[in-house]
Amino acid sequence: MPKITTRTYDSLAFESLHRGGLPPVMARIYAARGIVNSAQLEMALARLLPFDQIRNIHLMAGLLADAIEARKRLLIIADYDSDGATACAVGIRILRMMGADVGYLVPNRFEYGYGLTPEIVDLAYTTSRPDILITVDNGIASIDGVQAAKALGMQVFITDHHLPGDELPEATAIINPNQPGCPFPSKHIAGVGVIFYLMLALRAEFRQRGAFDTGKEPNLASFLDLVALGTVADVVKLDDNNRILVQQGLRRIQAGLACSGINALLKIAGRKIQQTSTYDLGFILGPRLNAAGRLDDMSLGIECLITDDAGAAEQMARQLDTLNVRRREIESNMQDSALSKLESSLHAESARIQSAYSVCLFDQSWHQGVIGILASRIKDRYHRPVIIFAPGNDGEMKGSGRSIPGFHLRDALDLVSKRYPEVIVKFGGHAAAAGLTIVAERFVQFCEAFEATAQSLLTEADLTRVIETDGELDESDMNMELAQHLTRQVWGQGFPQPTFNASFYVENQRVVGEKHLKLKLRKIPSSSMPAQDLNSASSYDAILFFHNDLLPDVIDAVYRLQINEFNGRAMLQLLLEHWSQVETKPIG
């Protein structure tokens, strides 16, 4: 059973925000997310961190400008997820606007794996003969790939945001806010944000050279729709800087100013452009783009994002949608298989499994492109660090991991690699997600080493899922005005959408759409709140998705305020995210 806690907040920050004009409930919500003054809530582009704080960015911008002026051939090496696709699209679109001869190459994950590998370098050389390779959303771990490129006479410019290892590649230039010695404060910027910042620096370089004296400068803000999509879809922390990038990008999308590909993806998914939210970017568009990289070739996703032909974009969006349906089917079958495998282990070795601090699973039939999603599902169910493996090439296994708070997955894999250097072939990633390749015959050894590492870094308390809420809402705050205010804000990783908790009487309930519950709830006054006349308490419409068993008469619930639009009417609705039965019926 999850543990429900109320987010704490700094009282001085609360007072500052309240004095700045925010109502108490919003001051409390923002203070609990680390906001200390109203200026942090201003989403103007002028508040973006300056690009010159990124180490080596002036060097790379200067070299890139030289290369463009000399008509050298550039080739972007992209990653095969949404961040990589949007980063590639930003690079291609802007570099071509600035006169560059630039193409792209995205590795097929099943043939070449991740990043700038020697095999990808050979492919780039034989097919394009580029002078310069530019990595986006990858490259910081590509030691061998950079050496291979240099041996063939190609320069390498690395733009990345992943955590570096002990050794950096010997590239011509590297920009990565997470490399040693980089003072850029936003360490959580996505790969698409890094290439966008490089393009800002490149424009400034060309401005200094007088390149725009006789013509109009390119408006780089027009590409923030892509930056917003990649940032949200990559689930990076939405710090102040990332929230500005996302908010500005959302405004462009909502105003109908997005690229043809984003508009087409929204249309195919049946979403209203004017109401696009971070949910749409992360859970509607992101998966459709990712489906190309997971099951086929991310070139389809990139082409959808770089075309200006609305008809072509819609045709590609339909293909991406079809791939996403297929991805969901594969994922569902794999999830059933994995859960069955896990439940079997639980039944056979319940004492050992229940005391385990991690989960590692492998099946010969599982698909490399979907193991990350499966790892996320298993992690959510069991609240353990999870790594799911699928067959690789030449006696190897490919793994994808997801982690829980308190367990830095990339650092944990680093520990395993140093203790058992013969087990892991390569790895990389973040605190919450990572990918790796291991020697297949060392699978059992890896599982044991990973479990030992998990036990050394986690406590039993870490293995209990914690649901953080923003506490109770007074009935006076449970209204459309607050719901609309919350809907307009940017929420996401590290800046979670507000949830609240309370006890309710279930006055009415019925199954809708065969798998959801539509409810009428009446709030029960908390003992910590002013006494209220129960008979005068308001009733609220509520929805519980993917649950068709009737609830008990009295529940404790975690919920979000939501605006439900139906038949042209907008009404307040509570979206239930968690519930539990109240054993003792309240008096009232």
TrEMBL record:
Residue span(s) of domain DHHA1: 359-454
Transmembrane segments: none
Family: Belongs to the RecJ family.
Domain of life according to the entry: Bacteria
GO molecular function per UniProt: 5'-3' exonuclease activity; nucleic acid binding
Cited Pfam families: DHH, DHHA1, RecJ_OB
Record Gene3D superfamilies: 3.10.310.30, 3.90.1640.30
Keywords per UniProt: Exonuclease, Hydrolase, Nuclease
Keyword Hydrolase on entry: yes
Keyword Ubl conjugation applies: no
InterPro entries from the UniProt entry: DDH_dom (IPR001667), DHH_sf (IPR038763), DHHA1_dom (IPR003156), RecJ (IPR004610), RecJ_OB (IPR041122), SSDNA_exonuclease_RecJ (IPR051673)
Residue ranges of domain RecJ OB in the record: 469-578
GO annotation, biological process: DNA recombination; DNA repair
Stated name of the protein: Single-stranded-DNA-specific exonuclease RecJ
Residues of the DDH domain: 74-231
